[in-house]
Amino acid sequence: MTDPAIAANGLRKSYGDKVVLDGIDLVVPEGTIFSLLGPNGAGKTTAVNILSTLVSPDPASGAIRVGGHDLGADPQAVRAGIGVTGQFSAVDGLITGEENMLLMADLHHLPRSEGRRVTAELLERFDLTDAAKKPASSYSGGMKRRLDIAMTLVGSPRIIFLDEPTTGLDPRSRHTMWQIIRELVTGGVTVFLTTQYLEEADQLADRIAVLNNGRIAAEGSAEELKRLVPGGHVRLRFTDPHAYRSAASALHDVARDDEALALQIPSDGSQRELRAVLDRLDTAGIEADELTVHTPDLDDVFFALTGSAADTGTAGVPSQTTASDQTKENVR
Ligand SMILES: Nc1ncnc2c1ncn2[C@@H]1O[C@H](COP(=O)(O)OP(=O)(O)OP(=O)(O)O)[C@@H](O)[C@H]1O
């Protein structure tokens, strides 16, 4: 089995008395997108800064390996294999997009002709060829972000850290950026993404970790995380009032909508719970005209995990949960 792209054990970081990361474990398989979510100040940027060698972890941290190299013992090797696009762009507004790219190629010691080739190719790929000779200060926010990522790719990194890559972008530019990120992963790159947009994590990430109070409050795929919070239900709709009434009495714990001839049954959306509902309908010889499964969205998960239970009314959500464990429970 190959090494994960990122493996951190007991990652710790304090500033003075303030514990920012209280021993978090992270494993990111190669060629996947991992998203770290958390409220402002949760420590997402700190985690990115440590994993990209910009900031030292506390000595009490466990082993941290990035790109197969030990972060403490061989930071140079780690640096050679990664790219970082932070909240503060590396783009120099005073020079053109092309010059920014060529500067990057020089920093990576690419031969001149190779630097020009890579620059032209990346500017084309990120739809910046027409603007290549204009000063970067004249670029829109979306163009600057694209240039920033293009600059990161000059060194052909295998792992890319994207710290809030779409903050402040309009919806169209955000979608373009999502497409770019997906294409990076198709090419085998591993992406470590922090974001404050839950939809972004939902759209892109293979796995999501929610950081709160210095710890990982929950981790899993978007679907697994959504199953952790209450609010999911199965909705059955009928056209025949008789079938509707029969179903209402055959099923337990239903909320009725007599006008719409619809029934709502609390459910985590798991196969086991769906089967139970369908079995009851089958036994009673009833067929619904429409069946839809509603799971909570990531916003629900985020508020449940990072807000206090008393505030959000979501008592019962475990504070330290591995969603895959929970899922295994569900399908058993
Ligand atoms: N160099 C530093 N010195 C002291 N405190 C710091 C330093 N860097 C970060 N912190 C503190 O660590 C905490 C986590 O900050 P960090 O920037 O990692 O959070 P974040 O999750 O990225 O937040 P945001 O979403 O607002 O960017 C904050 O309370 C911040 O004030």
From TrEMBL:
Membrane-crossing residue ranges in chain numbering: none
Bilayer disposition of the protein: Peripheral membrane protein
The keyword Cytoplasm belongs to this UniProt entry's keyword annotation: no
GO biological process: response to antibiotic
Keywords: Antibiotic resistance, ATP-binding, Nucleotide-binding, Transport
GO molecular function annotations of the record: ATP binding; ATP hydrolysis activity
Compartments, as annotated in UniProt: Cell membrane
Annotated ranges, domain ABC transporter: 6-238
DNA repair recorded as keyword: no
Entry GO CC: plasma membrane
Main subcellular localisation: membrane
Annotated segments matching region Disordered: 310-332
Protein name from the UniProt record: ATP-binding cassette domain-containing protein
Organism annotation: Streptomyces liliiviolaceus
Lineage: Bacteria, Bacillati, Actinomycetota, Actinomycetes, Kitasatosporales
